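Reopening this ticket.

The earlier resolution said the output was attached, but the attachment link was broken on my side. Pasting everything inline this time so it's all in one place.
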Amino acid sequence: ARIAKGFQFTTVSSDARLIAAGSQQVLSKMRAAPTPPPATGTY
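Inline output:
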């Protein structure tokens, strides 16, 4: 991600923090979404 932005030197920890921040955003959106109704059929 950082290399695509033009950085020539990156560390694993900076990418890990970026991934962690992105995953927190995704999880918060998933938790805020309404839950689907329960399935009624076998399939």
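Reporter confirms the inline version is readable. The first helix runs from residue 12 to 32. The mean pLDDT is 83.
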